[in-house]
Amino acid sequence: MKKLTMQEFADYLGLSYNGADKKVQKLVNDESLINKIKLVKEFESNRNIKKVIIDDSFLVEIKKEYNQLNEPVKNELNNLNEQVKQENKQLSQELNPEFMQKLVTEIIATKDKLIGYAEQVGQVKLLTDSEKNYKNEYLRLVQENAVLTSKLSELNTKMEIIEAENKSFKEQLDKKSSLFGIFKK
């Protein structure tokens, strides 16, 4: 059995003090590990210091567990570092005049495409506005047509009434003139 301070235990596993403390609390509370790990507080140098009493084989077992957990992270970091190094190497090789000329040409082509897209957006907006104006004008004309149609219908009705009255007056006038015509003959 080894007796380590909490900081020594944390350093051994490559954890922070708080991470190691949480791990020890979890292990101490596991009833199956009562004989393998214990946490004690000792008073040294006018302060309480947490110490871990741990079985040697269990300490090696925990160390292996943490190395396995950290290994993928280390591998991933190494892969990222290699990738960055390769990209830096490519960039340093690519910073030649031919590459720069090609890059400038591509940037100009991209700028021209963007200008073309902006012009197309303007045309679409103009067409959209024209279509909206056309629809608004169409709706206005439909409403105006409906109003004029109702007025025409109203005027036709009045005209029919006036024609009927006119016909009636004409008939009355013809009757009166025929009556006068009887006396004249």
Radius of gyration: 51 Å
**Overall average residue pLDDT:** 83
- Name the structural class: mainly alpha
* Number of DSSP E strands: 3
In percent, how much strand structure appears in the residues? 5-15%
Uncertain ranges = none
Question: How many domains in all?
Answer: 2
Helix content percent band = over 70%
Q: What would the principal axes of the Cα set say about the shape?
A: elongated
How do the strands line up in the largest sheet?
A: 1-3-2
What is the CA-CA span between the terminal residues? Answer: 158 Å
Question: H/E order of the elements?
Answer: EHHEEHH
Reported for the largest beta sheet, the result is: 3 strands, antiparallel
Helix run count: 4
Structure description:
- The chain is mainly α.
- Helix content is 80%, strand content 11%.
- It has 2 domains: 2-83, Orthogonal Bundle (Arc Repressor Mutant, subunit A), CATH 1.10.10; 96-185.
- It has helices at 6-13, 17-29, 56-94, 97-184, and strands at 2-5, 37-44, 47-54.
- The protein has a 3-stranded antiparallel sheet.
Task: List strands and helices in order, with pairings.
Blueprint: E1 2-5, H1 6-13, H2 17-29, E2 37-44, E3 47-54, H3 56-94, H4 97-184
Antiparallel strand pairs: 1-3, 2-3
Helix pairs in contact: 1-2
